[in-house]
Amino acid sequence: MLEVEELLHAVDRPELPAPGEKRRGVLRFFHPILAGWEWPFVVARGQSDGPALALLSGVHAGEYPPIAANRRFMRDLDPTRLQGSIVSILIVDPPAFYARSAFVCPVDGKNPNRCFPGNQTGTFSDVLAHAIFTNVITRATHLVDLHCGDIFEHLAPFTICRRTGNPAVDDVAVAMAKAFALPFVVATEPTGAVLSGTTSASSAQAGIPAITTEVGGRGLLTEPETEMQVRGITNVLRYLGMLDGEPESAGTQRVLKSSNSVTSPAEGMWLPEVELAEEVTKGQRIGRIENLYGDEIAVIQAPVSGPVLYLTSSPAVREAGLLGSIGEA
């Protein structure tokens, strides 16, 4: 019978164990708006000094392969082989996890990954982002935030990082993204459009090299995508010198400068006409919107030339709803 160690209980920030040890626990935050919720964490400390990695999953809690990969990697990790330390938060948004909510936290209806670095005078998601950013991310030297397509998203595996114009941060982040060994790397330019409030962009602005990974989707817990993320985490730790060995090769890998969202001009049913990773050209027809009677009411065209990175897999869409994204080299 498996013996389960007693859980650590921490307030605001998980403390590291002794060198060569790994512990798991329950994190609570002092802020009253977060009262009543608990955050599962695992901490590991190597026998020698090295980088301090923050490893997150469940920022979008309907994204299951990342959560499973984080859990598996930390369970299997031998801390005596580790250099440096890891603080892993397994599910950043517990209210959304238990509600099976896509993208948003059901407490306040906000997308937590648009709330970083947070605001301790805001609503639940703002305060949560502030607590995670202040107590976990800013205490780290590097960040890996594990994601995938949400409950109604289908995507090609890719890794995102945000260039800031600071080579000391940007070069490491791009190298981490490449080391994760997925087919596509989106390394956005400092002058390019960026989604505000994301973990990786906020961390990069704070001088912390950070990546966001995207493997899996559609509300499914799938083994190949889970294992792909586990291998990616291992590769990044090898690149950082936290584990022995060299990162595995990604084979063919394409670096892109942006991911360009495609939205719907009308509500109705979304019917894509392209496949994931398919190369499209700017202006190419990639799908259509039909009304509820089956009449075509809008043609959807590619905003740029490049590969299809993700597609909304649910037909139902509101006006201005997200349909997919095209990468641009």
Into which percentage range does the β-strand content fall? 25-35%
Radius of gyration: 20 Å
Order of helices and strands: EEEEHEHHEEEHEHEHEEEEEEEEE
Runs in which pLDDT lies below 50 for 5 or more consecutive residues are none
Please tell me the overall pLDDT. 95
Per CATH, the class of the largest domain reads Alpha Beta
> What name does the CATH topology of the largest domain carry?
Aminopeptidase
Major sheet size, sense and barrel closure: 10 strands, mixed
In spatial order, strands of the major sheet run: 1-2-3-5-4-6-10-8-9-11
Task: Offer a concise description of the structure.
Helices cover about 20% and strands about 30% of the residues. The protein has about 325 residues and is an alpha/beta fold. The strands form three sheets. Strands 1-2-3-5-4-6-10-8-9-11 form a ten-stranded mixed β-sheet, sandwiched between helices. Strands 7, 12, 14, 17 and 19 form a five-stranded antiparallel β-sheet that branches. Strands 16-15-13-18 form a four-stranded antiparallel β-sheet, with no helix packed on it.
Structure, explained:
The radius of gyration is 20 Å and the shape is globular. Helix 1 packs across helix 6 (223-239). The chain has helices at 64-76, 94-99, 124-135, 167-179, 199-205, 223-239, and strands at residues 8-11, 21-28, 39-45, 48-57, 83-89, 142-147, 153-155, 158-162, 184-188, 210-214, 254-256, 258-263, 268-272, 279-280, 285-290, 296-301, 306-312, 316-317, 322-328. The protein contains six helices and 19 strands. It is α/β, with parallel strands linked by helices and 329 residues long. The chain folds into two domains: 8-255, Aminopeptidase, CATH 3.40.630.10; 257-328, RNA polymerase II/Efflux pump adaptor protein, barrel-sandwich hybrid domain (OB fold (Dihydrolipoamide Acetyltransferase, E2P)), CATH 2.40.50.
